[in-house]
Amino acid sequence: MSVAHVRFAASAATEAPSDLNVDQGHRHEAGIVASSVYAHGVRIADIPIEEAGEWSRKDGHVVWIGLLEPQPALLKCVQEQFNLHPLAVEDATNAHQRPKLEQYGDALFVVARTAQMIDKRIAFGETHIFVGHGYIVSVRHGASTSYTSVRQHWETCPTSLAKGEDFILYAILDFIVDNYMPVLEAIHDEVEEIEDKVLAKPMARSDIERLYMLRRDLLRLRNAVGPLVEVCQRLTNGSVPQVRPTLAAMFRDVTDHIRTVQEKIDSLREVLAFAFEASLLVGQSQENAITKRLASWAAILAVPTAVAGIYGMNFENMPELKTYYGYYVVLAFIISACLTLFWRFKRNGWL
Fold first, then answer.
1. pLDDT 10s digits, 335-346
2. For the domain that residue 97 is a member of, what is the CATH number?
3. 11 lies in the same domain as 153
């Protein structure tokens, strides 16, 4: 088959869904990002889905198809080309799966969760990967970074790409895991800002709500990342026939990256927990300080209040009322008592 038979070209620069040209009155829904065939690691053509199965059966050829939120009709066509298991196709259509690895005959089905920061929240997506002899199909749903850069990078290294579909599986999983780090870095920067605010003043309600949302998003991210460890371990231990033992070291490297992401998530969640506790302590400390000030001034003002209350009683037979210097003595007593109390409270740090 020559390039002249190609009915569409994938946009590798943006990896936006491409429109398919009309052939014999048939037209698929939008959803194809790229559909290419590689011979010994070299990209030789962009091919239509209807011919992908034929190309995958040629020796030394690998078909790499990328789909973005495809319609059921498009997945049905892909299923027919590679004889994919109906249950795997159903999972890829529903796109509400936990990370997992399943084998259906001679085909491998892998699910991984993706993540992106959108409007200061972690948005999650899914990537479903079908791997078999001579083909690999990735199906993206939801928030996910384009895999165009993966394709473009390894197309410059035909020797590596020539290792086959299991190497492409490694490249995609490694890219997914690496893209967790920008999300964590963005959260880390915000966590540092929260820490600076905590020591300056108690957190406002909006800050507490944001802190809670970050902790919840990090927990969801950890739940999305965790199962990938088991997936990569199965790809490493030689129990999956679709993956050659020579690639075990590469999948071990992905596993190490996942564990690093898990440690980073746990560290950020602990920092957020400490920030919340520190905010409570700062707030309690300021409340205690205010309480002490109010109690101190209340004690100081209690002296003139008590004296004035005594002399404000309407009794005629009060000996102190006839004292010539009584007013000055009482006033001096009030002032001295108040100053003494003020000095004691100031000395004890209450004022």
1. 888 888 888 878
2. 3.30.460.20
3. yes
